[in-house]
């Protein structure tokens, strides 16, 4: 998980902030577009049923309207799930707390900071239509990959090195480099 632009944390090694919060929302914009598409899948068969022409899918009759309604309902459920998704990681003192809120409920876990192996700096390359995009990812690294917390994502290597060192000093953990950081 990475911090959003609105919750970007600028750590100082000499400061001891009471709490660091990293918030991440789900793909709400994509969920909104999917909700519009779901509205079309639901609206067309409902309009056909109200007008008295239940055959909205040629050759399937009224069953086609039911299938279209089911597809629309499934798309709407996925869209609402994406729009409500929220994840918050709070680092307070010697405790890391993650709260994951989704449509079907909330899941929370807590882990002491001593359970983390270090602050990891790794390079990441993602394909792009104009060539690969490279960035440096700073993570609070845990042996269980699901509990690894992304702290920052930076393109400039010197700035990434400096920020990783500041994060490592802030948490009192060793700085590890590379994907495995063994």
Task: Report on the architecture of this protein.
The protein has helices spanning about 30-50, 60-85, 155-170, and strands at about 20-25, 85-90, 95-100, 105-110, 120-125, 135-140, 150-155, 175. By secondary structure, the chain is an alpha+beta fold. Helix 1 (about 30-50) packs antiparallel against helix 2 (about 60-85). Strands 1-2-3-4 form a 4-stranded antiparallel β-sheet. Strand 3 and strand 4 (about 105-110) form a beta hairpin.
Key terms for this structure?
182 residues; alpha+beta; four-stranded antiparallel sheet; 3 helices; disordered N terminus
Relative strand content: 25-35%
Structural class assignment:
alpha+beta
Give the beta-strand count.
Answer: 8
Please, what is the oligomeric state?
Answer: single chain
Percent helix, as a range, is 25-40%
- Tell me the major beta sheet: 4 strands, antiparallel
Cα-atom radius of gyration: 23 Å
What shape does the CA trace take?
elongated
How far apart the termini lie comes to: 21 Å
Mean pLDDT rating = 83
Unreliable residue runs:
1-8
Largest sheet: spatial strand order: 1-2-3-4
**H/E series, N to C?**
EHHEEEEEEHE
Number of helices: 3
Summarize the structure.
With 182 residues, the protein is of the alpha+beta class. Strands 1-2-3-4 form a 4-stranded antiparallel sheet. Strands 7-6-5-8 form a 4-stranded mixed sheet, covered by helices on one side.
Give the SSE layout:
Elements lengths: L19 E6 L2 H24 L10 H23 L1 E7 L2 E8 L2 E8 L5 E9 L6 E9 L7 E6 L2 H15 L3 E3 L5
Parallel strand pairs: 5-8
Antiparallel strand pairs: 1-2, 2-3, 3-4, 5-6, 6-7
Helix pairs in contact: 1-2
């Amino acid at each position: 998980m990475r911090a959003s632009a609105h919750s970007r944390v600028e750590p100082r090694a000499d400061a001891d902030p009471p709490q660091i919060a990293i918030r991440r929302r789900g793909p709400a914009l994509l969920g909104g577009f999917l909700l519009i598409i779901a509205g079309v899948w639901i609206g067309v068969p409902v309009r056909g049923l109200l007008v008295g022409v239940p055959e909205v899918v040629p050759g399937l009759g009224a069953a086609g309207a039911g299938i279209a309604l089911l597809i629309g309902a499934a798309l709407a459920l996925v869209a609402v799930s994406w729009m409500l998704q929220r994840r918050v990681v709070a680092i307070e003192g010697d405790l890391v707390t993650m709260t994951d809120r989704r449509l079907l409920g909330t899941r929370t876990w807590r882990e002491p900071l001593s359970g983390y192996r270090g602050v990891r700096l790794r390079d990441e390359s993602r394909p792009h239509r104009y060539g690969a995009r490279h960035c440096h990812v700073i993570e609070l690294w845990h042996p269980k990959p699901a509990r690894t917390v992304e702290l920052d994502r930076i393109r400039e290597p010197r700035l990434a090195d400096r920020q990783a060192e500041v994060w490592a000093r802030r948490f009192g953990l060793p700085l590890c480099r590379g994907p495995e950081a063994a």
